[in-house]
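Human
Can I borrow your eye for a moment on a structure tokenisation matter? Give me a protein, with the fold worked out from its sequence. Write it directly below this note and I will take it from there.

Assistant
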Amino acid sequence: MTDTTEHRRTFLALAARALGAGVAAAAIPEFAQAAPGGTSGSERNPKRKNPNMRKQTVEIGKENAVYGTSSSAFEKYGYSPAVKANGLLFIAGTVGVRPDGAVPDSVEEQSELAFRRLSEILRLEGLTMADLVEVVSYHVDIGNNLKDFIPVKERYFENPFPTWTIIGVEALARPALKVEIRSIAVLRT
């Protein structure tokens, strides 16, 4: 066995242990082929429910005051605002959009709205910002815009802080968007 193969098997074993075999197989296509007892790609059916994978989507109603008509984007683009799986809540990128779908000009207001939307998803699940374990923020023109983002972020977090990764990007889904926040929270048991 080569070092590369051994490293891949070690990674896949760790992923299976951390995520559960079903989640690892769904998230890492090579898992099902390389892991002992796994199934080959031709034997897997992505439409079939995996009994090892327990996931549940979070729904945001059309009457939600924070999301308003902008909640229609989830159905339109085919994704969930958040998914619960294996004790974690994976929250899709939230952006600074007003309930009517309008995008404000300022990075500060976009940041405020994005954190408000993130907080709303947490609230719907009986969680708070203190339950976040990871936050990833994406910034267009990071050199100029981060200074307007940080004061808003500081109002939403207190010690102990979640991990935070800052990524500069060329663009987001809509040209007017300057900030997007993706995160993971621990569900309460």
User: Anything to note?
Assistant: Residues 128 and 143 are 30 Å apart (CA to CA).
